[in-house]
User: Fold these one by one.
Assistant:
Number 1:
Amino acid sequence: MQKKELNDLIARFREGKCTEEEEALVKYWLHHLNQEGDSGLTEDDLLNAGETMWNNIKPARELPKNHSPWYAAAAAVLLLAVSFGLYFYKNNSHIQSGRLISENIAPGGNKAVLTLANGKQVILNSAANGKIAEQLGVSISKTADGLLVCTAVSDNRDTKNNTSQYNTITTPKGGQYQINLPDGSRVWLNAASSLRFPSSFSGKERRVELKGEGYFEVNPVRGQAAGIPFIVSCSAQEVKVLGTHFNINSYSDETAVKTTLLEGSVLVHTAAQTPGAPGAVKLVPGQQAVLSNNALKVERADVESVVAWKNGYFRFNDESLESIMRKVSRWYDVQVVFENEDLKNEPLAGVVTRFASVSELLKKMELTGRVKFEIHENTIKVLEN
């Protein structure tokens, strides 16, 4: 029956008979799969992969680790199934309807405030597209698809007595934003985060300051600027790099600062250390530096889970419910209360789009049979099942 319903979904998509929600999600994942790794997958591929997937679903604790296009396709089909909830409600009579109060709390989106060096604040989600400001030879503009672009219109690198002015972009709970820095580097900011950056990069380093979580694609500068390191400073550590892709999670309510490398190499050290001091660590792709109690250690990273937020979904791989609900709290701008402290350690696994309402997400989590949720206005109460 599950396979038949999946077939029906794809058939409706081909015939143009999907609901707006179904069509948007199918198109999103077709686009996502072809964008990530140029897989060339079509809806036929999704359908064929789904047949294998339904026969081979394993418990959450045995999620596969490979990254082949066929696994990605199967994961996408599973996401479609979970996102729509077409299959579970019919076959899980133990789910108590009405236990969860259905509140229409929408997911987050592109929301941020830009604070310019002169103190002027621009609410980016309501600002008109086009040029916002120009300072020290850098034009700051907003694009139609919600991107902040800083473009150098003159080279101030060799100007004497040039003092960079610093701007700050801040996302609230329920917000995210992407920014192109003056050197061409790109940064994705997660909810409840901020990035402080200069109007132009000059001198012997390119330094920015991060609070919260950000994904970085650093531009390896060329020509006269070649070899100038890019440095991300957090409250407790610094990350030094010439050109690479990495993610930093430095939320103050997390137990550790985690730096995860996807491409290139980075050098991570505590704020009290110098880059070459004992205890500093150099990462290779797939590794994660974990800073806790002023000590750094290197671990193997679940890269897909780390960057899932940037790619538009939640991915939990045997993650504690407490950690999951912190992410839910930031993205949906809600408060979370646990009925029983022991529930915080409950591990859950799954994949679901970040663009569902909070009640939809919680209903999917309820299907594990382990927890229940109640929503009262802007507060989610986590209950024992």
Note: The chain has three domains: 2-91, 109-304, 312-384.
Number 2:
Amino acid sequence: MVDIYQTQTMMRAMELMPPKATFLRDRYFPTSDENIFVTEDVLIDYKDEYQRRMAPCVVPRKGGILVAREGYKTERMTPPYVAPERLITVDTLNKRQFGETLFSQKKPAEREGAILRKDLMELGEMIDLREEFMAAKTLFENGYTMRQYADEYGGDKYKEFDIRFYDEEANPAVYTPSASWSSNNNQFYQDLALIVRMFKERGIGCADLLMGGGVALELMKNDYLLKLLDNRRVQIGSIEPREMPNGATSYGQIIVEGTVLELISYTLKYTDEKDKVQDLVPSDSIAVTAPGTGVTLYGAITQIEEIDNKYHTYVAKRVPHIVTNVKGSIRTLTEKSRPLTVPKVKNSTISAKVLF
């Protein structure tokens, strides 16, 4: 008989579960097998595109001149430890589950597998949302600070986990507009032109204008933008609102300095540790970037297994763990992960607060 609580069995079951759509992580920080490390620590390679050197001219018949290879910087980081858990008790197994008939005759043992599957899915979705939060912070703040709790989530006992993808005292990948985009003029277009030039000067591409909900509403009623799009002699873009697969909205495209930017609004919210509802993408801000600007790395998970009381290391995005309290008839299910969203090139996203 298969033991549904064995780690390998649960991991195989998790692979069959439909993945949760997460727009920011999947579009801007995709991952692959090579991004899952065999240690808790991960290695991050940064490229800096500021220096663009020309090939040297050489006197004929003198061979060539040595030039340096393109440099990069490698850093070792320990990803944050994410580990939501659920209790499975006798009371849980005795209780009628959502979707069961009102007078269900199911025995507790018959509900066990269904409850385990549901808990694995819900814990996984919580980790998905944490990764989406990390992706948003990387795009808009070039790093993130998270609180690592020792006991109660949202309590007073925590240690801050700080990650920054720049060496300066302040985030250099921030643009400050001279006026708010709420004014009905060409301020937004001037700002976008300057931001696009910042990318071109460094030789970095950009393709997306990621907006908060408030910015999208202001932009879609901007008279200057509407007049630009209505000019038959100048092809400056098009507005064709459509829903994207992972919960975002594309309003169309706008051409700035010859660069085509897709106008994307993302209004997904989350509940923080203080039970306050927050925007993942700030409603008053934008970020100019490109798909695949970064990557999500995962550190390995090491844990003691009940089957042999020995340490086992798993190289995977998510690792379930069961601890049984026989005396109390309680099982504790934990789903563990060590994710880290990182940019491939330093300062490859430029953010700005444009409503004020």
Note: The chain has a mean pLDDT of 88.
Number 3:
Amino acid sequence: MKFNSTLLIFPALLLGLLVMAPTEVQAQDPHFSQFYSAPLQMNPALTGVFPGEYRFTANYRTQNYAVLGNQSYQSIAASFEGRRRVGRDDFYSLGVAVLRDQVGESNFSRSRAVLSGSYLKHLGSGRSRGSDQFLIGGAQLGVGQWTFDWNNLWFSEQFNDDPMLGNIGIDFGAINGESFAATETDLFMEFNAGILYYNVIDEDNSFYFGGALHHLNEPNVSFMEDQTEKLHRRWVGQVGGQVGLTRELGLLPAVAIMGQGPSFLGIGGLNLRYSNRDWREIAIRAGLWGRMVNEGESGMGLESMVVSAILEVERWQFGLSYDVTISDLSSANNSRGAFELSLIYVHPSKERFKVICPKF
């Protein structure tokens, strides 16, 4: 069995990131429970961090269907990126990422598209065969827009409580008494940046850590003309790696925390990975994750548990996960939180010497 004592720092790092987190929460940017399968939505520095020539990623999430039905939260993301060598040991990568998030009877949606780039600087190899260290800086530049639909909304002026005027209830054809008529924000620019360090100690052991800042320019997302409503910056911290147990078995622990204005979310756990170690590799993963949020006056608490399963077949990776609500919301949604799918395709490189990357 291959094992390095450096990896004993994982329990302390994973616990520390969750314990030292902020204690206030409100609305946040869309997020995925399989954050490790949505790299360009997490950190621009993850652009190009894969063992191949190019990578395609797709993610889908539906949340709180038990409560909201067809108006449940739905998030769809996709990205494509390619990597090229610079000199002997360094690389640069370019890609594009899109995201659309929609929720509620108002069909409130947030859409964005960004160009993503990174530079992978090789810091050297260790004494162990195959050991490699990289420091990556990444940035994203793109546009976004928020929209919603008035048609399914009602206001107090449209509520009919006079029996003489007909049926008591909502009259959607009545004047709503609102002067506000905008259904979309102006297109806004956004700028994101991140950094990542990783060390692949050997084929079965590695670790990484990094962070990112999103919406650095704090764009205006107001629906009102001549009004300003800044989109708060979102910060992200992440740490994880791989711990080899046997030739076929390994652990993939990870933690991600993020804050946006007064909001906070943290998720951590691990996947157990089994591989046949054949030249046509097939691997399966099973994992358990916990999501922590602030639960109002009661402070930090465990909001849900996430169970995950992933199948790797050569170039393809298929993932699914389910959020089981364990907070007070479980009484309303019968513990049925969110369902998520992920797909990753990595095209192998034709180069003789390939970049070594950690598993996520």
Note: The chain has a mean pLDDT of 82.
Number 4:
Amino acid sequence: MNDFVASLMLLGALSGGNSLPFWSTTGQYGLMPGSSGALAVVQAGTSYDESKTFQWKWGVSLAANTDPAVMVDQCYASLRWKALSLDLGMKHPDLYFMASDSRLGSLSVTGGRVAESGNARSMPGYRINLDPVAVPFTGRHLFIYGSFGDFKTLDKRYVQGALVHRTRAFLMLSIAERFEFHLGLDHYGIWGGNSPVYGPMPITFDNYFRVITGRNASAAGSHSDRMNVIGDQGGAELFKWKWKGDGWSVTLQHDIPYNDRSGIELGNFPDGVNTLHFGFEDKDRWVSDLLYEYHYTMYQSGSIHDNEFDENGNFRQWTPDLNFRGMDNYFNNGEYRSGWTYYGRTIGHPLFFPKGTRSGTWDPSGIVQGVENNRLQAHHIGVSGKLFRKAPYKLMLTYSLNYGTYSASYAGESPRQKPWGSVKETPLRQVSAAFTGEVPEIFGVRGLTLLYGIFADKGSVLPDCAGATLGLIYTLH
């Protein structure tokens, strides 16, 4: 049967500074206020009925915080038949490398996906999903899976009302019973909408086909879209190895952001998020999951990118002395200037801070024009388990060296248009830490859980501050 679940969460947040620490707001689907305040979330929904071939479920969650903002967090209906499913409405993306309790979120900075991390609010639309299906004549050693969907932006943006296409396509090679290898592409395309420069951007089937196939615009498109690709297109490539032991597993993952063809062709190596995760099946252990990540996004296909257009605005044909690759500028775009952000928060990698973060002028209710920090190195550790084998917790510690972008370095000399490695760059250091957890059945009441969190930031990008959250969630099954 379709099990019904409803819950009410009330959470208070207090900071010693003007804003809440990084980990108190990151990966929270854009719901937390930006400064000391409170959050209330009420949600209800059902799960799939696994006893039936044709299954359905639904979910609704509403949130209000003291920024002030009242938000529809989720509102969706899902249908499933065998390996196929359809999601209609607003629904959270799937996250990976989860803590011992799903309410505590992922142990990864990116939620296991650099292109869609659960850091921003959900867009309305549809998504068709395919669970892993064996490729015929491969002896169940090769599987395909992925998703295909379209969404609409509702926030204030540089190109108002832009549309978003999403395609995820993956192969899974099951070499042996215990070993899996995954290879895939996670693609997004922002197109359509009303540009302050070009006016309404044509929404046609031809343009839509060009978006989903990563092609350039027709003769009716803008000069840049004709020379490159239509709209703002980017995403990530994924390589993942997983070994399953007896009651445990080890996963090694390389998740690479890209913003143009050179990235798709792996011209931006060694950029990417490198994740090593060890987890026990028994989530009641004192320590059930350990994760280490190394983030490197400095190269971006190189520091030199010659001008593709001459002084008259005409496209310059490539010659051996010209380089049209380099300075990929992840999650930014010249025409769709809000980039890969939504309601002011980066949809993908959370350490790609939106513009205005360092200066303190960031306003999630205003028009955010992309990200100001996509060149970084970072080390991250995540630990999770259950204290006394009953109370779930999560520990997060992130140390990053932040350089800004090629066009606007945070500090020191910029390597822009200079040979790679010839400039000694100056980073801004940042440390962010968090310890969050739950105490179930508080006051002896079944379904009533105490939520708590302690957070701190120290560095040169985010304001130095410490903060805490405390709340209650009551769940009715």
Note: The mean pLDDT is 92.
